[in-house]
Every structure is written in structure tokens, then in C-alpha cells.
Amino acid sequence: MKKKGIKRGKVITLTTKHARTKQDLGNGFTRLEFLNLPIPARGFRVFRFSGTEGNVFPISGGWFISNDTTQDSWVTANYPQNSRTWIITMLNPSTVNRTTQFFVIVKNPA
């Protein structure tokens, strides 16, 4: 019996228009929230936020994974790729499909 490995992931590109909620934090800062993004069992996803469309600069990113939080999940990357792009790579090694919430804090130009 062949053991199943990690499935190849895909890149999901998000912009300000994809945000489910937007919260004004004051002083030109906004929190964008992206909900119910799928991560397959034994798979990973790369979430790429692009601030070029909304003319914003991402300064921080975070995540929350749902569907059986007793099982492992990892973020293997969480960084700014450049001044307009934020990357989060999430791994779901469990045997169930899961969803995630992805957050980005952005700065609006003055």
C-alpha cells in the first residue's frame, strides 16, 4: 500500500476587493479579513495578497484555521514579498479538508 504524501498546493491571489470585512484601525491603517479559504487534506495553499489594486501597503499578516482544531496545521511562510505583496503559506497535514481565515493589516497612503 502506497502512503499518500502532501498534495501540491495552489496560489490564491487576493486583493482588497476580495476582503469579506474591512475594519478601519485609524491613522490610515485597515484590517482586511478573508474568510472560508479552502485547504485540502494533506495539502497546502499559498495565499498571496496584492495591494496594488487598492493602492495599499501590507504591513502584517495572520491566520486562523478551522474544522477540527485538534489536528495539526502550520504556516511555513508569512512575509512581505515586496512593498505591495504579503505571502502566507499554510500546510494542512491532517486527513480532513479545512478552511482558514486570512488577515492582512494594510497602510493606506497619505
Structure description:
The protein has 110 residues and is mainly beta. The chain has a domain at 28-99. 0% of the residues lie in helices and 60% in strands. The chain is built from no helices and eight strands. It has a four-stranded mixed beta sheet, with no helix packed on it. It is elongated, with a radius of gyration of 15 Å.
Strand content: over 45%
Overall mean confidence score, pLDDT? 88
Level of helix content?
under 10%
Question: How would a crystallographer describe the biggest sheet?
Answer: 4 strands, mixed
Number of strands: 8
Uncertain runs: none
Q: Give the SSE string.
A: EEEEEEEE
Radius of gyration computed on alpha carbons: 15 Å
Major β-sheet strand ordering: 1-4-7-6
Write a short abstract of this structure.
The protein is mostly beta strands and 110 residues long. Helices cover 0% and strands 60% of the residues.
Which tags fit this structure?
about 110 residues, mainly beta
Present the secondary structure layout.
Blueprint: E1 10-14, E2 21-26, E3 29-39, E4 43-50, E5 57-65, E6 74-82, E7 85-92, E8 98-107
Parallel strand pairs: 1-4
Antiparallel strand pairs: 2-3, 3-8, 4-7, 5-8, 6-7
